[in-house]
Amino acid sequence: MVTKAIDMSPTTKPGVILELISYNREKYNKIDSTDPDELLTHLQPDQVNWVNLDGLGNIDIIEKLQAYFCLHPLLVDDVLADQRPKAEEYDDYLFFTLKMLYKIDGTSIDYEQISFVLGSNFLVSFQEKEGDLFEGFRERIRLDLGKVRKKHADYLLYRLIDIIVDNYYNVLDRVGDIIDEIEETVYENPSNETFYKIQSLKKELIYLRKALYPLRDALSKIVKGESEYVKEENIRYFSDVYDHVSHIIDSMDTFKDLTSSLMDIHINAMNTKMNEVMKVLTVISTIFMPLTFIVGVYGMNFKFMPELDWKYGYYVVWGIMGLIFISMMIYFRKKKWF
Amino acid sequence: MVTKAIDMSPTTKPGVILELISYNREKYNKIDSTDPDELLTHLQPDQVNWVNLDGLGNIDIIEKLQAYFCLHPLLVDDVLADQRPKAEEYDDYLFFTLKMLYKIDGTSIDYEQISFVLGSNFLVSFQEKEGDLFEGFRERIRLDLGKVRKKHADYLLYRLIDIIVDNYYNVLDRVGDIIDEIEETVYENPSNETFYKIQSLKKELIYLRKALYPLRDALSKIVKGESEYVKEENIRYFSDVYDHVSHIIDSMDTFKDLTSSLMDIHINAMNTKMNEVMKVLTVISTIFMPLTFIVGVYGMNFKFMPELDWKYGYYVVWGIMGLIFISMMIYFRKKKWF
Amino acid sequence: MVTKAIDMSPTTKPGVILELISYNREKYNKIDSTDPDELLTHLQPDQVNWVNLDGLGNIDIIEKLQAYFCLHPLLVDDVLADQRPKAEEYDDYLFFTLKMLYKIDGTSIDYEQISFVLGSNFLVSFQEKEGDLFEGFRERIRLDLGKVRKKHADYLLYRLIDIIVDNYYNVLDRVGDIIDEIEETVYENPSNETFYKIQSLKKELIYLRKALYPLRDALSKIVKGESEYVKEENIRYFSDVYDHVSHIIDSMDTFKDLTSSLMDIHINAMNTKMNEVMKVLTVISTIFMPLTFIVGVYGMNFKFMPELDWKYGYYVVWGIMGLIFISMMIYFRKKKWF
Amino acid sequence: MVTKAIDMSPTTKPGVILELISYNREKYNKIDSTDPDELLTHLQPDQVNWVNLDGLGNIDIIEKLQAYFCLHPLLVDDVLADQRPKAEEYDDYLFFTLKMLYKIDGTSIDYEQISFVLGSNFLVSFQEKEGDLFEGFRERIRLDLGKVRKKHADYLLYRLIDIIVDNYYNVLDRVGDIIDEIEETVYENPSNETFYKIQSLKKELIYLRKALYPLRDALSKIVKGESEYVKEENIRYFSDVYDHVSHIIDSMDTFKDLTSSLMDIHINAMNTKMNEVMKVLTVISTIFMPLTFIVGVYGMNFKFMPELDWKYGYYVVWGIMGLIFISMMIYFRKKKWF
Amino acid sequence: MVTKAIDMSPTTKPGVILELISYNREKYNKIDSTDPDELLTHLQPDQVNWVNLDGLGNIDIIEKLQAYFCLHPLLVDDVLADQRPKAEEYDDYLFFTLKMLYKIDGTSIDYEQISFVLGSNFLVSFQEKEGDLFEGFRERIRLDLGKVRKKHADYLLYRLIDIIVDNYYNVLDRVGDIIDEIEETVYENPSNETFYKIQSLKKELIYLRKALYPLRDALSKIVKGESEYVKEENIRYFSDVYDHVSHIIDSMDTFKDLTSSLMDIHINAMNTKMNEVMKVLTVISTIFMPLTFIVGVYGMNFKFMPELDWKYGYYVVWGIMGLIFISMMIYFRKKKWF
């Protein structure tokens, strides 16, 4: 999608949901609400506040968040419109946007843009649709598993990005499985179905690439320490995500090469089949055309055709035709045509 | 077009129009004129002055503007000739030139070069033809909507470039639509018409690329703060346009890959069709050549052909031919030739 | 040509011509000579001295110029041998070499290497052959048109390079025209002639690229202010030539893509034609092979063939053959084979 | 493999083996153990301690190593998951991971990830599977051959990486041999078998590239002196490995080009064969179709066909057919169709 | 070759030859020897000493040279193994290695690795085989032609590299000649022989590229002044060689494009031929199949076939067949099939 306008059907409007999770080492609180005014009163200055918005259809809510967090108008534009992944440092916060991938029905891939605003003690996340990959992680925060309750908002951002990037591996694994699957059949059976599978793989890789290359650039900005909202001690975590993205890009390039190799194999198998067809045609024609000519000769009605009166003429003709047939077969066998 | 000379038909000469819009927070004034001397007297030193020239055919007007704004001869050359998009800092102003895209009749794309000279309190814009994308924006200035009346000339330049770049999205959306449209038909029907559509898409993307890559470079110059005529506080706006152009370039590359994927599908569909044709030919030949040979045998006029005198000879021949026919059909069915 | 030795036939030797143009705001003098000793006495220390040498066959003259201007032996080697375009700063002068393009008979392109040595008050130019693109410009110097008489030797160098680069546009325009011309015919008529035209275009673009990319690098060296022999104030002029070369390279890349697109169209048209031929063959074979088989059946000479004795047997056979013919036609029409 | 989880079958669990080799100029000690607690007590602070772990299935052991050497959790994640080759400097050690290549049965290639943690007096190596390339080198340490006993842990790391990289040469040599082998047969015999061999070569090169490019980047980090755990004096050794990896990459690129050249040759040979088949078909058809037509003419049963009654009609027809045959042969011979 | 081990047959062992040339402005001395101990006593501290070794089979000699000049073990490894061209600065000398190209029998190309160690007053050169390109240059030193006797060891290194690089031009010229030669024939005669020539050209260019790109990098290191063993005043000379290598790389890329253009022409010529063959087949079939059908009709043996009894039936059939023939010819002529 290149459209700047938000791509969203009106039925998702009731799905607009605001959620606040605030925590520190000791405390944990979670509030769901559709009223931003009420929700924002619960922000705790001495805790990490994660405000999550599902659904971008309610401009009213977004404007209230914008006013509360002093969000720059350009930032809000970027949240609402389809954007390439990027990290952008503003005076009071860091803006980070990327694509979240879902598998739908286990076959096609769905993209959702997710944007983050990271301040000193808050993280606002904007999602296009309800439902995300973070359910298990929310539970880990509540139960105080892992380090997240001991860390600040930048670590929270790292964890969320890491979960999204980890999900890319799932998508790539599926691509790898399909490649293996195609490879087993393409040599034997270069069907159109195989060809379409290869094409749809290529398409998925094209879209993945569009999501991943800018993401790597965005992460590299943070890794270089250009943001003051990511603490020195936590840069290593973002560096790790950066390595994962690089690894995924490598794998993607590898898959791209394998896919184009599959294309070559498909084309070669098609050509081999065609060659085979042509050989059958040629063998049949080359054998039967001379024979048909011969029998045609003795089907002529000339009055004076001495052979016709020979007693064994008929058998002689069969003999000649048999010789032609056998020598043809030897010739084609030598040429390895069948 | 590579020609340096201006590409313009004489009939557009009467279309040469000078327009001055000067404004600040309180005041707004708009003057249309064909007399530069008179128009230039209305420039307000304490306001933002936007001088717009439609049509480059009247050298006289251009020379008067050149004299008034002390434009460098090389700059004027660049305005008059086809130029690659660029930003160039002169002592007294910033020069910026890019391509404006129009859709004509909703199908083909028209390019127009637009050049800007940005000074501390003025912006001069040079357009090749009458009519532009700014009509709605002029109205917004007049009605004091948005921030433009509160800002300086550099913000005006940003808005104009942003409007032009936004229009690129429209062009790309159309390319995306055509790709979707072709994709639906190309698997089934690899017609030449489809092929020509793919080719014209490729051509549009080739020209787009030529317009966009240098534009990104030009914007990056401004984003890096190399120009003193774009204020620190407004660089973020140009940075936003820069991101849009990067996004468009990403999409363009994606579309390029999709287009070449469409080509592969088209070629494969062509080959599949060809294969099908060859198979029909081979099946028909392989079945009827032996049969025709057999009936030819019994069309021979030898005096001594015992089979001819058999009572059921004719039926035996039909039986043999039936057997050949059926075994051929089984053979081809096994080979999945039809 | 990769050869380091000078590519020159002995007949051009008499064409070796030395020319000196010295000028400043007030004075202008032009001397033609074949005797370097005599000519060099006319150099004016307080004027711009342009020494031009046509023809590199007379080593004697070159050695005298080398001695007079203290030219480095490597520099002289570079002048005499085929060189990639480059700018090289020596202690006492700037060395610049590039390719000059000519159209010969309006069709093929001829390359000539031209080298410049720019000192503080002189410019020496070395050309391989007599005749160049500067005739009109010499006249402009004489008549004191433009700024050249008011400027120094570096501006003279700029003007000469600018004239050479401008001529590249002519060559590219011709390429563009041929592309348009081919595009009109290639869809309908994929002849070999078209194919050869496309190939020769590709070849011209390959050679152009070899001349242009290093030229851009050479100019960028000057634009970055690395040479003390090009004054700060004149760098903008070289920067303008740099932009032109970048523009030409962009156009060249565009043309390269268009050319390979033409190739695709040609190949597709060839394949379409081939498909058409194969369809004709298949249609004809598929219709007439069964028919020929049928008439063969009733050409058999069996004694007992009841159909032969039927009164309307002949007409029945015609009827059956007519049915087969019509159903085949309907089948092929449905498959859109013709 | 893109999976982050460790790819390991449970049967390798018993293969988990811990090994400690500690040495300096005078002393040498080697301990095998499955109990990390016991093993770690044998570390000698004044010697080089090489701790090697074969098999990553026992999380318990890894956690004890992690605790002892204060390994960062991200580092342990990297050891356990499939990782792109990289060098990463931590506060107390340098982390280095790369791929080890094995030839299995002399044909297919097996990859194993090996990770190193280099501290001031220790080197920990993590291998996925039992068995490695270092057996001969362990013996060299024991016998005090070469410089390793006189050097520190960073030299030990260099030697291990060098051994792994040297083994890449073996893999590449094999690729080169197969290319030579294919080249000898592909011109004559473009079989599918050849094609599959080429494809499997391409696949091996694709995977090799994925292992090698990041390895070069990782080594370049060390060569630039970014790690404090590699001493200045030993950087030259890593620089040498870096050169080897560059050389291997060059060779790999060369092989890639040669492989795609083999593909071209294969395709051309296929096409040549196809052409040959088509020519045989065309020659046979072109000769026998007119002849069969002629004999068909004289097989017609018209009452009034004067030729049939001619005495030498039959011989005249043979003569005409002979003429047609000979002129066809001359025609095809001239066209060089056989 | 990727093998690290030296590729050398034992028969070259007797060919191991040591040679010392020492010179300054006044003196010149040349000694051939197979005993390094004796030879090394003749080194003159106040002269330039060029020690040349032909053949790397005698490890003894190499070890003595290593001891005398304090060569680093890694350097000796690099001399003995196949290496990518590189320049490497050690404490006491500069190491430079590159490939020397020979034409063997004027057709195939042979590569030899040559390595240099440049100290303050000596240059050691290691060659794999006897015989090199320097014979003429040795004579120039002896006769004190050119500047070499007036310069130091770094100038000697420049001259030797320059001679090697100059020889690359010869190889490239040959490639250019073959391209021209192929181009003349490929349009008319797309034989397999032409195709193999194109492929062998491609192969040569692939190997050349592998030798040249790293050489340019190595030279650029010296040009940037990174070596203290090349004096400031002589860097210009190396810069000149650098330009030559860049020029050769440009030409190589050009040749690569021309070669792939030749491939396109070859493929097109093949396809055109194939099309021609198919057209002949189709024309013949389309003309004779209907005709054969017609004569088959009147070869049927029905008792009641009125046409057979017509007096001019036979001639009418000929007339109809003539009409069919002529209209087919007109049809194909219109379609430009022949």
Question: Could you walk me through the main structural features you see in this protein, from its secondary elements to its overall organization?
Answer:
Five copies of one chain form a homopentamer. With 338 residues, chain A is of the alpha+beta class. Helices cover 55% and strands 15% of the residues of chain A. Chain A contains nine helices and seven strands. The first copy, chain A, has a seven-stranded mixed beta sheet, with helices on both faces. Chains in contact: A-B, A-D, B-C, C-E, D-E. At the D-E interface, helix 5 and helix 7 of D face helix 3, helix 6, helix 7, helix 8 and helix 9 of E.
Record the SSE blueprint.
5 copies of one chain form a homopentamer.
Chain A: E1 17-23, E2 28-33, H1 36-40, E3 48-54, H2 59-69, H3 73-80, E4 86-89, E5 94-104, E6 108-118, E7 122-127, H4 135-142, H5 153-186, H6 192-223, H7 235-297, H8 306-309, H9 313-334
Parallel strand pairs in A: 3-7
Antiparallel strand pairs in A: 1-2, 1-3, 4-5, 5-6, 6-7
